[in-house]
User: Fold this.
Amino acid sequence: MKVPDGWTLACVGCGRKLHSDPGAFTCPNCGDILELLFSGRPSADELFKPKNASLRVWRYARAIPGEPSKAVTLNEGGTPLPKSVSLGRELGLPNLFFKVEGQNPTGSFKDRGMTVAVSRARESGAKVLVCASTGNTAASLAAYAARADLKAAVILPSGKVATGKLAQAIAHGARLIQVDDGFDRALELTVKAVAESDELYLMNSINPYRIEGQKTVAFEIYEQLQRVPDYVFLPVGNAGNISAVWKGFKELRDWGVTASVPRLVGVQAAGASPVAEAFERGSRKVRPWRSPETVASAIRIGNPMSWKKALRAIEGSGGRAMAVSDEEILQARRELASREGVFVENASAAPLAGLRRVKEEIGRDSTVVCILTGHGLKDKLPASWTRTRPQVATGAKELVKLLT
Ligand code: F0G
Assistant:
């Protein structure tokens, strides 16, 4: 299908411009991934004051490809940005905020991109929407495909997907296919399969329409804070989201809506941290890891497809990439739940774990946002947290005794 008016599809490798969406969303010239470029320059008024503010992601329709009236939507976006009540004080960062993306319709930030990409897929006449996934993309795709009355198939690393996410994909009626290997192999097979068949339509984040929806989190953060934060911490897996967040903040600056951009800090799990490794080496190339392993199954990824975009985001924003241990991730998950009242899945706790490590390098006056990407109900708790059994009360007297 023809690229929408006002938009250009360009290869991030060779720069070739395309006039229609290619299968599997890779460059027919060099095989690299693609990005959508917008030729418009919306003003703050056009971007932030549309008539229907309850549209959430689609309220930024001026700057995303697609028509709100034709969108496949569950009213995604518009997630809260509470200020920290406890951890910020402890870390010496009184202006710490949490962007709670777990409050999206299927419990993760994936819904922002899925509404745009599934709408595009339906318009293109696609029949079967497919993705490889560590779980959240599968859950989101399954829900939006159900709404669009399209078939969805999700390709999953066997035994490595959190039960809550599997339940979502099953409940929404997606076809589940397991690959006896990790996410990287699942994605490799998926991209090859889509390239070979006209009936399949790729819904991973190398589909650039997903990035256009996901970038709206940057617009929201700016609107909610009424300023550009100094730092944004977020987890990095396949590296689509850091690319999207960067695109959003960069566009705001390029359009003259804002005067600066935040430093983006991409946090990976130590056992799956090829982007952090490249950053620390000062390299402009990410070397894939063969057997990534981490308790944060959502970001258990060794060969991130959007690595070029991620390095661009880190460099362009003056940010960094870093790795944190599984223990630090679990501690941060617990702190968010027990001290802030925000329950997130393991991967989503990585930003706070990263922030804890580098807090000394951040000025006290800085405004810091941690993007908490997915809901805690999706992921099982570590066994060590569930050892305490509930006490039993058979009558009110006994209950009082237990409580006082
Ligand atoms: N946080 C959560 C909860 C995720 O599910 C993911 C990715 C990320 C962070 C990282 O985002 O890949 O764009 O760098 N989940 C994908 C999936 C891989 O299949 O659900 P990324």
About this structure: The mean pLDDT is 96. The two ends are 68 Å apart (CA to CA). Residues 108, 133-137, 205, 235-241, 298-299, 345, 347-348, 373-374 surround F0G (CB under 6 Å). Residues 334 and 385 are 9 Å apart (CA to CA).
